[in-house]
Amino acid sequence: MKLKKNILCIGAGYVGGPSMAMIAYKCPDYRVTVVDINGDRIDAWNSDNLPVYEPGLEKIVKKTRGNNLFFRKDIENQIKENDIIFVSVNTPTKTYGAGADMAADLQYVEKTARQILKYSRSSKIVIEKSTLPVKTALAIEKILSSSKGRIKFDVLSNPEFMAEGTAVKDLENPDRVLIGSRETKSALNARNQLIEIYARWIPLKKIITSNIWSSELSKLVANAFLAQRVSSINSISALCEKTDADITEVAKAVGMDSRIGDKFLKAGIGFGGSCFKKDILNLAYLCEYYGLNEVASYWKSVIKINQYQQDRFIANILHRMFGTLAGKKICIWGFAFKADTSDTRESPAIYVAKKLIAEQAEIIISDPQAMKNAVSDLADSKGTIRYVEDPYEAASGCHAILILTDWDLYRKMDFRKIYRSMVKPAFIFDGRNIIEREKCFDIGFNVYSIGKSALSHI
Ligand code: NAD
Ligand code: UGA
Q1: Which residues on neighbouring strands pair with residue 387, listed in sequence order?
Q2: pLDDT in tens, 401-433
Q3: Which burial class, exposed, middle or buried, applies to 291 when counting CB atoms under 10 A from its CB (0-12, 13-18, 19+)?
Q4: Pocket-testing residue among 170, 226, 260, ligand 2, by greatest number of atoms within 8 A of Cβ
Q5: Mind giving me the DSSP string for 231-270?
Q6: Does residue 224 lie in a domain region?
Q7: Which residue has a Cα nearest atom 21 of ligand 1?
Q8: Residues within 6 Å of ligand 2 by CB
């Protein structure tokens, strides 16, 4: 097949890889190339062991890779050869200087813009796919127009809304695709070219356009609203534990109001992942920058509750296990920040594990996909940590099991068999409310869930 258009993506991470694989899969006549400064990542994308675990991803990569999807290291060449460039580099929270611990670190985006300017020999459409503070497009435009050549650049904002663990599903059938642009003739033409790509598989009514600043801001706000729902339900879970109300019943009753909706109301040990915290901090930083201190502190409280939920979980473990964890064996089921991903960035499991180590517990970690990341997350922790893939073996000989990720597998365990292999009294702290708690209690476990009364034999 003759390839019609060339698309490049700079950044081969959790977003760049899957989102470009989807474009290649849906547009077989487009040549899609993904580059990264991290050569190991590119090697992994070209291997049988993809760097990102996502249900369904392997299938579409295998179908497209080498045909119209390419993972390459020659960034300069690829910039020269492609006219549509997505920027999907990381935008972590700044750890230094002005705005440290709040603002987005834009050095990777800026370096990418400079690279694009340096190696371009023809006009390009540059698309922000990374999550960026509102007004970043202005900085990118200024960099790209700083050399007075005849090459023209149109900058678009096209934030990505996929979630990890459901990336393929979300990319294939998104709630919406948002494209922000300037209103100039050339920008509108660029916008139409991007619409043409998505329209291959997404109904036009789901492809919405806006001004470029609304688009940048909408992405931060969507994440802030999602995180706010999690913190809202978690704050109420604390009250449920004091009052014998049950958080699942409350969430159901509240969520059935169609104005509120039932999604994102699962109480747990708090949200993790690379984006919620960083994007809210970024939003709060922007508000402070514009002197909107009350607005900033409103959003910061979402993060405060998230931290409080994790501290509450640990305090409860310590309290229920007679005030000491020293020398006790604690099994952690699930290290990923959510099910169906190997990603552990900002996973509550990291914080919980470190707190248990500080209490001198011996910890045994089990996760179906995230073991490699867990090992590197805890590499600097001085404590007794074992990594055991089989959850039965991991729990055997332990005093307690903590469920920290909502992997489906943990719902289906043989708890009778597990109970027999554990030290008594045996404890389960279900940080995701996924087990059949009455059944486990009847087997003999002391069961502590989030936002529910304790089921305790002691
Ligand atoms: P990531 O860290 O997994 O990937 C970013 C990649 O960019 C890295 O592999 C890095 O080596 C590469 N990179 C950095 N500078 C580069 C340069 N100058 N040239 C070439 N490559 C470069 O990050 P991610 O999770 O894919 O997130 C990327 C962006 O997308 C972030 O802004 C994030 O907020 C946003 N986002 C992430 C998700 C998600 O689920 N992870 C979802 C929506 C949006
Ligand atoms: C989130 C958003 O859902 C995506 O739309 C967005 O594109 C992405 O961030 C991003 O910008 O990176 P993600 O972090 O991958 O996606 O996963 P979520 O499903 O949002 O879960 C985030 C955290 O909240 C997880 O730790 C999850 O366990 C927790 N959560 C979620 C709850 O505790 N309760 C819920 O009801 C829902």
Answers
A1: 365
A2: 999 999 999 999 999 999 999 999 999 999 999
A3: exposed
A4: 226
A5: HHHHHHHHHHHHHT--HHHHHHHHHTSTTT-STT---SS-
A6: no
A7: 36
A8: 131, 160-164, 223, 226, 230, 264-266, 268, 271-273, 275-276, 337-338
Q: List residues bridging with 32 in a β-sheet.
A: 7, 69
Nearest CA to ligand 1 atom 30: 130
Integer Cα distance of 267 and 434 in angstroms: 11
Distance 162 CA to ligand 1 centre (A): 13
Residue 119 sits in a domain whose CATH number is 3.40.50.720
Q: Which domain holds residue 142?
A: 5-202
Select from 151, 183, 202 the last residue of a domain: 202
If one residue of 230, 404, 408 were mutated to test the ligand 2 pocket, choosing by the most ligand atoms within 8 A of its CB, it would be 230
191 and 319 in a common domain: no
Q: Confirm whether 317 is domain-assigned.
A: yes
Which residues have C-beta within 8 Å of that of residue 170, sequence separation ≥ 6? 161, 162, 163
Residue keyed to tokens 């200024």: 142
370-399 pLDDT tens trace: 999 999 999 999 999 999 999 999 999 999
176 with 237, same domain: the answer is no
Cα of 270 to ligand 1 centre, how many Å? 23
Q: Is residue 216 part of a domain?
A: no
Structure tokens at 132: 């960026």
Of ligand 1's listed atoms, the one at least distance from the Cα of 131 is 32
Instruction: Please state whether the predicted TM-score (pTM) of the whole model is above 0.85.
Output: yes
